[in-house]
Amino acid sequence: MPIPRHITEQLKRLIPPLDGSLHKGQSGPGLGREPYMENFAKLALSLARKQGMFLVLDADALWMVGKDISLIRGYRRAVITPNVVEFKRLCEQAGLSPSTPSDKKAGLLSRVLGGVTVLEKGAKDIVAIDTTGEAADLKESKLEGTNEDNESTQETVEIDIEGGLKRCGGQGDVLSGCVGTFLAWGKCYEDGAFG
Fold first, then answer.
1. Which residues contact 185 (CB under 8 A, 6 or more apart)?
2. Which of 17, 31, 39, 91 could anchor a disulfide with 60, C-beta 3.0 to 4.6 Å?
3. Model's pTM, two decimal places?
């Protein structure tokens, strides 16, 4: 059930991204999968995109995006941080072939999503960005006026440093929070806060 229009208008006035005081948006951990929460998360995501905010999507936000990839397609200011199961589901929903070599999948997913950065968590973490596909959109990413050649990139980095021998719950949430912090610093740099 969609959010009634009068409530949406009230929320637009209350959600902080509209006043420019936030540097990035983050969604996923603790979101849940209830339809009403997804509707509010979609609204916040839409408003953040209109502001050109950096976004980090993890956990249940990836479930939401997997049901409607257009929520982030073409928006290269987004970073998704899927675990093994979430990554497999996103690849299926993006139409990637299961026979694609595993070391190429994160880059292809980024390309299909239009330059969204993919931080695939696993035994070896993979960070990939590919803005060379047709879905990449400078206007959607609030990067109009930049040199398109400079904004075209294709890079994959594999992190194979052994981590802790035991995993505790919440490590992915902490990682997505760290990524969000780095993106907020990047926004401060963009805005000239560092000189």
1. none
2. 31
3. 0.89
